[in-house]
Design brief:
The chain is α/β, with parallel strands linked by helices. It folds into 3 domains: 1-41; 74-275, P-loop containing nucleotide triphosphate hydrolases (Rossmann fold); 280-452, Ribosomal Protein S5, domain 2. The chain has 12 helices and 21 strands. The strands form 4 sheets. Strands 6-5-7-8-4-9-10-11-12 form a 9-stranded mixed sheet, sandwiched between helices. Strand 18 and strand 19 (400-401) form a beta hairpin. Helix 3 packs across helix 4 and helix 10 (368-380) crosses helix 12. The radius of gyration is 28 Å and the shape is elongated. The termini are far apart. The structure holds thymidine-5'-diphosphate and magnesium ion (MG). Magnesium ion binds at residues 104-105, 125, 171.
């Protein structure tokens, strides 16, 4: 067992001594020097209670396990609650990753400030004044949120024991360090050790802990991959820094589905939850422009109307360029090949640029048909009817394939005032009459005929 490391401090002036003495040589006070432990011998700093560390588990039949009613802490942020699967689970560890400057600290501070619980926001990145400045922009009046600027886990735990918070936010895990590891903050062993200590704390006290994590250039959470395995939930905050919209997704969630999505808008006074994303993602252009089409997509269980823009022009150089923002470039190539082969469009010598507006990226196959509509519309320079949206997948044979939850997509389109929606004729609908015209197509040629006569 490692030796317990202690040192002597004058309780009056704070001078440090390596051994006890009667009078402090610094402030000349008598009997003020006391011994303090600066490094504990046992490995973890989170001291477990007598029961928890000796709790012996024994196997139980699943029917014998009594389930307590699931309690979740409401974060007062509807989008975050949705992505978490209904709120924070007590004792859970949530990792929030995202590029620098995307708004992770803003989101978490905003949540911390509006929570009805006692929250400890630990920042190793900004000073208390900087956080205060940020808080003033967001919501200055909160007397339940404590700010701690500290990076040493031992000190963090000491403060936690003192104020006993209901929720702990750590900004960021890469800045933490523990005394038990020699390496510098942000190194693999430091991150792993600090996370382990925090997990132990979270599980034993049933306090939810949110960790903010940086991501590397290629989009992975910096540090060991093991961090993602250790935590219960991994959230990713994404979006284009130059756009106002930010998307919160769950990449892993032990307590809910991972296909939920939250949308925020970055404003001067923090992040605003976007309740009706379809409305903001569609441009309010009155004019009919060629090269745009609306897709009825679904993110998780949430219908979302998005606008797809395409630009098709003659290639200046020998090899035509194909570029897609927010959409899989390989899939775009496939769709262009289908159009070439099945519908007879000569696109081989054309540059094709595709963009999903709002800076979001979508991998729902149901946007295929809207991609086709946008590309063809730009190619022939005829606008697609503004009141029309599309939802179908395209097969390699040029067939229009059905997609999931089609009725939900239809009703969202109806709600937003579209006049018609193009779907696959193979979709099974429970009823025939909707408030909007449902156009059923079977082949890509039918779509072309319908859109451009
Ligand atoms: P921040 O939360 O610091 O990002 P991260 O912690 O992910 O690195 O977000 C910083 C950006 O957000 C910054 O460029 C300014 C912008 N911002 C606003 O637009 N409005 C606001 O109210 C706040 C607090 C920040
Ligand atoms: Mg930050």
């Amino acid at each position: 067992m490692a030796k317990v490391k202690t040192t002597f401090f004058c309780q009056n002036c704070g001078a440090q001594y390596s051994k006890w003495q009667g009078q402090c040589t610094s402030c000349k006070e008598w009997n003020t020097i006391a011994e303090e432990i600066i490094q504990k011998a046992e490995k973890s700093t989170w001291k477990s209670g007598p029961t928890s560390s000796h709790r012996a588990s024994k196997p139980l039949k699943i029917s014998e396990i009594t389930q307590e009613k699931e309690v979740r802490l409401d974060t007062k942020n509807l989008e975050l609650n949705r992505v978490l699967g209904g709120g924070l689970v007590p004792g859970s560890l949530t990792l929030l990753g995202g590029e620098p400057g995307i708004g992770k600290s803003t989101l978490m501070l905003q949540v911390a400030l509006s929570l009805p619980y006692k929250t400890l926001y630990v920042s190793g990145e900004e000073s208390a004044q900087q956080i205060k400045m940020r808080a003033e922009r967001i919501r200055p009046d909160s007397d339940r949120c404590f700010i701690l600027t500290e990076t040493k886990t031992q000190n963090i735990f000491r403060n936690i024991q003192e104020i006993d918070p209901d929720i702990v936010v750590i900004d960021s895990i890469q800045t933490l360090h523990t005394d038990y590891i020699e390496s510098s903050a942000g190194s693999i062993s430091q991150i792993r050790e600090c996370a382990t200590e925090l997990i132990k704390f979270a599980k034993e006290t049933a306090t939810p802990v949110i960790l903010i994590g940086h991501i590397t250039k290629d989009g992975n959470i910096a540090g060991p991959k093991i961090l993602e395995h250790m935590v219960d939930t991994v959230l990713q905050f994404e979006g284009d820094r130059n756009h106002v919209y930010r998307i919160l997704r769950a990449h892993k969630n032990r307590f809910g589905s991972t296909n939920e999505l939250g949308i925020y808008e970055m404003q001067g006074n923090g992040l605003r939850e976007v309740m009706n994303p379809s409305e903001v993602l569609l441009s309010k252009n009155e004019e009919r422009l060629s090269g745009t089409a609306i897709a009825a997509t679904l993110e998780g269980i949430r219908p979302l109307m998005i606008e797809i823009q395409a630009l098709v022009s003659s290639a200046v150089y020998g090899t035509p360029q194909r570029s897609a923002t927010g959409y899989n470039a390989k899939r775009l190539n496939m769709i262009l090949a289908v159009l070439e082969k099945r519908a007879g469009f000569k696109l081989a010598a054309k540059d094709v640029f595709l963009n999903i507006t709002g800076g979001i990226s979508v991998d729902d196959p149901a946007i295929d048909l809207a991609v086709i509509a946008a590309v063809l519309s730009s190619n022939v320079d005829i606008p697609v009817d503004k009141g029309l949206c599309l939802a179908a997948e395209i097969g390699l044979a040029g067939e229009v394939r059905p997609v999931t939850k089609i009725e939900q997509r239809i009703s969202e389109a109806e709600k937003l005032g579209f006049q018609s929606i193009v779907i696959s004729k193979y979709c099974k609908l429970s009823k025939e009459d909707f408030g909007i015209e449902v156009i059923k197509v079977g082949k890509v040629q039918d779509v072309v005929k319908h859109l451009f006569g």
